[in-house]
């Protein structure tokens, strides 16, 4: 493909993507293919000779689209959203075209410096304490990770390294990191994402899940009691991952209570607000972040709910040296004469290489402005409350938990098994797609506002489908 064909085919692909997104309602949100479907559609081995672009392009619909889950469909209500916008797509085109691997400032100064500035922009939009910002002149700052899972792992490993260094300095000179690590204990709530538990596995430390209150929140007294119990047993508490907006039910840990406990006990508190964090740019939701001043690190995903395409997970720390020192391996070929004047982000993450991800954050913030992004968040929250009203008006159903963001947890009144049957029936129907969850033995259904163009008509349609399927299911059960 030469440059002229690239110009032509690139424009064709832009048209295809635009048509796909604008007409996505016409596609079934969840595919009907079975495992192994794709192998039957393409040859067993790579072609010896080049194929025409027309043949390649035709296979998008023939091979790929039948197996695509359409996350941006207004009828896809599973999980949490994966953000999408045209400015972000355009930014990724530019990032791919530039193709730099921004592991040091010298490897592409613009890649590092834009990230520094835009993470400060975003931090100010969230009203983060100045200690988290580069512009404060302190040790804090932000970095774009791939996912919230990476951010949790990076902060846990940093906390572990910090604690081991402290132990070695204060000990008797005999450094037995293995013995100390076997006693390290990290905490999270019982509703924390599975990636938090996985971080404990990778970090080779015990991760304890603590019970939550009736609203799904981890409370300070529960954390304090766990710390005291573990210390009495000879264990060493060192890290808490508090969640704001859990995947299970969008519950919020009480960081105003847990933060002072962590500060008093010398424990690193990391706040994972992967989904809900975008909403904190709205003043009415910002109080949910109160207590962040106690956190050593804070993370959320603009790629979930802020129109920035995957992957873009923003992490801020109050003391960047605690992260960079934990991952600092500095071979001669990566050194440069301006070291120390700007961050070398390879020290702030697990991989060495990194894409120019700040471009899409920069494009999106400028294209929509703070007010535009706030309006988008508020629209989705209102849609969730509109769906909540439909559920409440039907005496067959009940709301599970509180509707705070763009997620509604609901269930048929009665046993878990009828709700399990309802979930299967709704998804088998195929017009919409939802997933279940379970908290303290109660099984329920989740409806998340995922598609960027979801509107009130889509919410009414989703409820129409659920109501019709429910009536059919209950009638069938009554006949048995």
TrEMBL record:
The yes or no answer to whether the keyword Lyase is present is yes
- The answer to whether UniProt assigns keyword Ribonucleoprotein to this entry is no
Cofactors required = pyridoxal 5'-phosphate
Q: Which family does it belong to?
A: Belongs to the group II decarboxylase family.
Any one Gene Ontology MF annotation carried by this entry is: aromatic-L-amino-acid decarboxylase activity
Q: Which GO terms describe its biological process?
A: amino acid metabolic process; carboxylic acid metabolic process; catecholamine biosynthetic process; serotonin biosynthetic process
This protein's assembly is summarised as: Homodimer.
Q: Which domain of life is it from?
A: Eukaryota
- Stated name of the protein: Aromatic-L-amino-acid decarboxylase
Q: Which residues carry this modification: N6-(pyridoxal phosphate)lysine?
A: 304
Q: What is the lineage of its organism?
A: Eukaryota, Metazoa, Spiralia, Lophotrochozoa, Mollusca
Q: What is its EC number?
A: 4.1.1.28
């Amino acid at each position: 493909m030469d440059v002229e064909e690239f110009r032509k085919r690139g424009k064709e692909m832009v048209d295809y993507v635009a048509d796909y997104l604008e007409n996505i309602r016409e596609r079934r949100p969840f595919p009907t293919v079975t495992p192994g479907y794709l192998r039957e559609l393409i040859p067993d081995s790579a072609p010896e000779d080049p194929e025409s672009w027309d043949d390649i392009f035709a296979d998008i619909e023939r091979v790929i689209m039948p197996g695509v889950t359409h996350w941006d469909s207004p009828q896809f209500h599973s999980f949490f959203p994966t953000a999408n916008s045209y400015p972000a797509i355009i930014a990724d085109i530019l990032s791919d075209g530039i193709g730099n691997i921004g592991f040091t400032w010298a490897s592409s100064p613009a890649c590092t410096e834009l990230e520094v500035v835009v993470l400060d922009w975003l931090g100010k939009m969230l009203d983060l304490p100045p200690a988290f910002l580069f512009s404060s002149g302190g040790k804090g700052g932000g970095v774009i990770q791939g996912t919230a899972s990476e951010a949790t792992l990076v902060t846990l490993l940093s906390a572990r390294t910090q604690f081991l260094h402290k132990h070695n300095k204060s000990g008797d000179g005999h450094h037995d990191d293995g013995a100390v690590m076997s006693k390290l204990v990290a905490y999270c709530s019982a509703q924390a994402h599975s990636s938090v538990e996985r971080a404990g596995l990778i970090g080779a430390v015990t991760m304890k899940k603590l019970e939550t209150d009736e609203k799904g929140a981890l409370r300070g007294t529960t954390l304090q009691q766990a710390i005291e119990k573990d210390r009495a047993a000879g264990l060493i508490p060192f890290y808490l991952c508090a969640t704001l907006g859990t995947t299970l039910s969008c519950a919020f840990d009480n960081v105003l209570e847990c933060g002072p406990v962590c500060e008093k006990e010398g424990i690193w508190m990391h706040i994972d607000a992967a989904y809900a964090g975008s909403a904190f740019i709205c003043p009415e939701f910002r109080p949910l972040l109160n207590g962040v001043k106690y956190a050593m690190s804070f993370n959320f995903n603009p790629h979930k709910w802020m129109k920035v395409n995957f992957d873009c997970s923003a992490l801020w720390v109050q003391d960047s040296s605690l992260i960079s020192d934990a991952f600092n391996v500095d071979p001669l070929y990566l050194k440069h004469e301006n070291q120390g004047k700007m961050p070398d982000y390879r020290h702030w993450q697990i991989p060495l290489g990194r894409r120019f991800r700040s471009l899409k954050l920069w494009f999106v913030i400028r294209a929509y402005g703070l007010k535009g992004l706030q309006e988008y968040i508020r629209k989705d929250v209102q849609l969730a409350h509109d769906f909540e009203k439909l559920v409440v008006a039907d005496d067959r159903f009940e709301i599970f938990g509180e509707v705070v963001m763009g997620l509604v947890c609901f269930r048929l009144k009665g046993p878990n098994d009828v709700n399990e049957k309802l979930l299967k029936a709704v998804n088998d129907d195929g017009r919409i797609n939802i997933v279940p969850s379970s908290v303290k033995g109660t099984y329920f259904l989740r409806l998340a506002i995922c598609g960027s163009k979801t509107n009130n008509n889509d919410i009414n349609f989703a409820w129409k489908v659920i109501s019709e399927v429910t009536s059919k299911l209950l009638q069938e059960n009554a006949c048995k």
